[in-house]
Structure prediction request, 638 residues.
Amino acid sequence: MAVFMINVYTNELDIIKKFELLDESTNESIVVTKEALYSAIELGRIRVENIRASNNRITGYGSAIKNYRTIVENAYTYGSYINDDSIVIIGEDKKNGLYRVVIARTKEIKILSKEELLGLVNRRYNTLANGRVYYDKYTSGYEIDGKFKQFESVDSTDIRKYKQKAKILGSDILRLITYENDVEVSINQRYKNNKADIVIPKGATRLIEDAFARGEFKSVIIPDTVNYIGTSAFYSTVIDELVIRVNDKLTVESNAFTLCKVNRLVIETNSDRLPDSLLMGIRVNHELVLPDTVRDMGENQSITLADNDLSKYKLKVIRRNTFELHGTNNLKLPNVLERIENGAIRGRLKLEVFEIPEHIKYIGSRGLGLKFNRLLVNHKLELDESAFNGCGIKELIINAPLDAIRDSVFYGNEFEYVEINSDIPVIDNYAFSHYDDNKFYKVKMVGLPKKMGRCAFRNAHFGTMMLDKEMESKRRIFNRCVFDRLYIDATLDCYNKRMLSGCFIGSFVLKSNGMVGRRLIGDSKISALKIMGDVESISSEAFQKTMLKKLILNDSLKRIGDRAFLDCELQEVIIPTSVNYIGISAFAFNKITKVTIKQDDIYLDNGAFYGNNIDSIKLSKKADYTETSFDKFTKIVH
Prediction:
């Protein structure tokens, strides 16, 4: 079976896209990608007569390929197979000795002089796909032979005038290349550091890669006919004044203005939105001028400003990665601004006091990536997840009835004081988590949310907190928090919720109608505990090692589980008449000196009060206990 490659489908920016293979035994053809074809040949699944695969490359000879089609078409004299090391000539300017080429490896389109092209071809990994390089003994130099499409001049009146003037003055500052429907512009390298005034003539359409890179100019004016600015066109360029007249079709490649420093930047446009990434990486040292028609800067501008006063602009929305503020003056936002989207504004600025303006309706994740000592929220707005994450806030005052504080909105700040003076229905996961374990911040709350998420507060210090039974909560809503007084009405789902984790509670009042379990408080520490309601059972290990010093039990309690109060710091215990069972080591290893048991008919299991300082205890004759229920020195009195 003989299989031949018969077609190569491609375009200017994707040199090899698909291969068409012909099986002559069946006269059937199939189109495959380069990757699929290479793998099939290398693994031995297919053998193609006129090409081979090795070292992650496909190579072959064009003379054996039928109906060969590439971007160079059949008209060229020296057609050969194109691989990743190929250079393809797609146009020639004989008058100026220039070639327009596609470099396969980098997928770039460039304008090169003959010397530049020969320099590339002479490198061992580049080959000329549709031309021939030969040594001419008459000129004692290398020449390029082939039939190539000629550039079609589209010189506008402005461009012709520029060329005429440059010719008269003998000073061609700009390099203008015309072909088909485009005019490419770059700086003549001799003038890039002359601090010249650059007026790109109207009619120019493309500023090519590195066109003005690393130059220094007094002014640059880009006309509205320019619809393409190439990679690094103004990379690391210094300009006193840059004027960009924007058209709706303008495309700007990555890093076009990266590290470009401009004293004054003027944008001229009739549109209400700038193209995305138009100014990415530019630094404006003095003034940014925008027309009042601009309401939206577009995304990914990353403009570094030395002036923090944005109130001079009429922006309604500031999108992702727009401003990097490095000024020393206070932040002022546009008076009509409504939305600050994710990562919109960031910088080194630290504000002493900042009140969110009342015209702001939405702030996205890290929308204001600045530092704030004191933040005031005095009107209702939407704060997205992580809106003020890591902003160094020390004091936060919320006076507005927000619908919700979402995940991590105020996560990772430097809180000293938080005050919430309005009802907020939802406080989500990690909303106020503060991760400096050596520091607690004070919290004052009016009202209680209907829903709280995991670790909503961490390292917070509350005065009095009342958790209502109607509140919907996740596990560990309070992590490493301090409560002077805590009241929990857990009559609905007390046993299954671990609401507290690693907390420190001064006075704890717990109301429940079921079993009180260990999961409720986790590894928290308690100074005083009062149990209320219809609690009938305290589960095993419910309050062990909590450093508990004072305990008041409810009158409906019947059972105290094993190790329920093991290894605490209780000094006195009163067991109500309702209790009929005290489990194994329930009160062992405390500092108890006095026990009052009011129930006559009660059973005290092994070690119930072992390891304490009880000299004597009075029990009813009906009471049942073991030899180890008390220490050996404890005297039982009936």
In short: The chain is about 5% helix and 40% strand. The mean pLDDT is 84. Residues 157-169 form the longest helix (13 residues).
